[in-house]
Amino acid sequence: MNKAFIGIGLDSRHDLFKQLLEGLDHIHKKLVVHRDIKLENLLLDPFGCVKIADFGVAAAYIAPEILQDAGYDGFPVDVWSSGIALYAMLCGRLPFKGKSMSELKRCILRGRYQCPEHLSAAAQQVIASMLILEPRSRATVKILLSHNFLQEGHSDCFCIFCPFQWILDIR
Predict the structure, then answer these.
(1) How buried is 37 (Cβ within 10 angstroms: 0-12 exposed, 13-18 middle, 19+ buried)?
(2) For 166, which DSSP code?
(3) Do β-strands 50-52 and 159-161 pair in parallel, antiparallel, or remain unpaired?
(4) Is the pLDDT of residue 158 over 60?
(5) What is the pLDDT of residue 152?
(6) What is the pLDDT of residues 128-151, one digit of tens each?
(7) Mean confidence (pLDDT) of the chain
(8) 36 is catalytic
(9) Phi/psi class of residue 46: alpha, beta or left (left: φ > 0; alpha: ψ in -120 to 50)?
(10) Does residue 46 register a pLDDT over 90?
């Protein structure tokens, strides 16, 4: 299990992921794309509210369309990276691994990963809808927020720390 999530219950991880999606929904409505969603960029304030930051690119979270270097739409890229983050939150590891960058790239471009048996069907559905190789077929943030997986629990706050020191409050 990822050390960052030891002691954080499944309900809390569920709520943190919902906060992430609410933040992405907010910035996407403003036509802003983050392009680097990863666990290391998700910070918690003293009240348990997620802050999205940016500390540089991590190869394991890169969407396949970026690796193909053929141009891409940013919103599906954020959904892919969020799917990687959700998988890591629930499974304690990343879905794609490689001993070298070229091996990692091959794994991502194949798009095959294994979900542990302990994941609920709803969690597996959400992850699968986010980790689709074809960006236009990937779920949108709006669709994800309406999924029954995210209807349980609620988040009371969400703030975003942008690289340019702008603070965007959703509520």
Answers:
(1) buried
(2) -
(3) parallel
(4) no
(5) 63
(6) 999 999 999 999 999 999 998 887
(7) 82
(8) yes
(9) alpha
(10) no
Percent of the chain with pLDDT over 90: 47
Give the C-alpha distances (Å, rounded to integers) separating 33 from 52, 54, 73. Answer: 12, 12, 9
77 versus 9: the higher-pLDDT residue is 77
Q: What is the pLDDT of residues 94-107, one digit of tens each?
A: 999 999 999 999 99
In terms of Cβ atoms closer than 10 Å to its own Cβ (0-12, 13-18, 19+), residue 100 is exposed
Contacts for 35 with CB less than 8 Å, ≥ 6 apart = 74, 77, 78, 81
For residue 25 the two structure tokens come to: 């929904």
- Give CB contacts under 8 A, 24+ apart, made by 143-146: 144/21, 144/79, 145/18, 145/21, 145/22, 145/25
Active-site position among 11, 15, 25, 36: 36
Structure tokens at 113: 């990963």
CATH (one of 1.10.260.100, 2.30.30.220, 3.30.1380.10, 1.10.510.10) for 3-169: 1.10.510.10
